[in-house]
Amino acid sequence: MTHDRTDEPENVVLREVWRDVLRRDPHQAFFHADVRAMLRSIGPVLTEHPEYTDVVGRLCEPERIIAFRVPWTDDAGHVRVNRGFRVQFNSALGPYKGGLRFAPTVDLDVLKFLGFEQVFKNALTGQDIGGGKGGADVDPKTLSPAELMRFCQSFATELASHVGAAVDVPAGDMGVGSREVGWIYGQYQRLIGYHEPGAFTGKPAVLGGSALRPEATGYGTVYFTQRMLAEQSRDLDGARVIVSGSGNVALHAMDKVIASGGTVVGCSDSRGSVAEPDGVDVDLLREVKGQGGSVADYAGKRSNAQTSEGSAFTQECDVALPCATQNEIGPEVARALVGNGCWAVAEGANGPVTPEAREILREGGVAFGPGKAANAGGVGVSALEMQQAAGRERWSAEEVDERLATIMSEAYDRARDAAERYHGDPTDLENGANAAGFLRVAEAMTALGVV
Ligand SMILES: NC(=O)C1=CN([C@@H]2O[C@H](COP(=O)(O)OP(=O)(O)OC[C@H]3O[C@@H](n4cnc5c(N)ncnc54)[C@H](O)[C@@H]3O)[C@@H](O)[C@H]2O)C=CC1
Ligand SMILES: O=C(O)CCC(=O)C(=O)O
């Protein structure tokens, strides 16, 4: 994406920050788009709080970027090498916190974008956690379980000296589930020589993983969506919902949609999408995906499911929950959603709706839940896992679910209140989430002095 001069912030300081960001890393389009959206949202906040102006430049520069070689041996005995990263973006509110992504598309641009999102998302949860993100440019789907364990161990060997319960607490993200977190944690524990369960979250339950952490992002996205729909005097009961992706976030969002009376009429994976107006059988989809199959393999077992290579979001729906990856909804798909009468879009994934598409949804009157608020349930429950580790406690699924619902409701309130206060429109949750997240981080950074 290129940016012309008309795209520059009016505020002189913000304009200088923006130019610095473009100059320092001219090729980081994902990061640029996210910074630009944040700078657009915080102009009115700085009018009320000029004392926070000087934190903006520091906020856009990660505190630390760690890049490292990940050597490992494949099953045929060949030595392979990947690149690993941890972007420790901001620790003003607490230890860096954020997931690890294993995907071929991982690079510094993607991780800086995700780390920047994480800083404000984590602030919106109301918990005392900073923001970071990491990962490696590996496609875990092409590795055998034995290869993936060796990969995780090699990755953890380098990561180990940079993380810890009070320093940086990674979790899973795309391509990294509780199994991989367990392997990374296992190698970490071996290296440090003692138990420190608070150093990673999203661990398997037997290692101290919180109840409901796997479900939390998907469930939380649905709780957030319910608040958005309530503003329109609507709810999920009877609603037709498309959920893209069929991984951790998507499958749990589907479960919660169905439990709320909605019908999941479409899903997808990286290989294609499925339309099924009678309703996706999520248990069957989970089983097929668990065996390494695709959504097309799932559709082959159903009588009324149509497959396509295009987007899942071009058929009729009331609610769209993009839960796969960044940039899955561009202008064309956004126009299809508006044209099909969609009421609301909430981002279960990070950055699935492009800036141009967000504008089209806004003009089309479609309610929009930005990822940094709508998918904050995962990291919210990760912070609960940190609390459980620190107190050597185990909370029940019911207790965690109640706290998750509160976290999502409070994140919604923070975004809505800031939207109303700084942008004069309580439904402008994108600007509201950015403004509310910024305020909390800026207050902490100011209190810490220039560090
Ligand atoms: N796991 C978590 O707790 C959290 C995840 N997220 C975000 O949610 C999204 C999904 O993450 P997970 O479910 O954990 O990952 P996952 O690896 O479990 O699943 C990702 C799914 O997306 C599909 N996919 C990938 N590229 C696609 C494309 N271009 N079109 C359609 N489908 C595609 C994959 O086939 C897979 O089904 C990511 O953006 C992640 O950053 C956000 C907050 C927390
Ligand atoms: O649970 C966490 O620490 C991080 C979750 C995550 O990666 C995200 O919110 O995007």
UniProtKB/TrEMBL annotation:
Q: What is this protein called?
A: Glutamate dehydrogenase
Q: Which organism is it from?
A: Actinomycetospora aeridis
| Keywords attached to this entry | Oxidoreductase
Subunit comment for this entry? Homohexamer.
Recorded hits in SMART domains, A to Z, give: ELFV_dehydrog
Q: Any idea where the Glutamate/phenylalanine/leucine/valine/L-tryptophan dehydrogenase C-terminal domain is?
A: 210-449
Q: Which family does it belong to?
A: Belongs to the Glu/Leu/Phe/Val dehydrogenases family.
Q: Does the keyword Glycoprotein apply?
A: no
Does this entry carry the keyword Metal-binding? no
- Domain of life per record: Bacteria
Any single Pfam family the record assigns to this protein: ELFV_dehydrog_N
Q: Name one GO molecular function term.
A: glutamate dehydrogenase (NADP+) activity
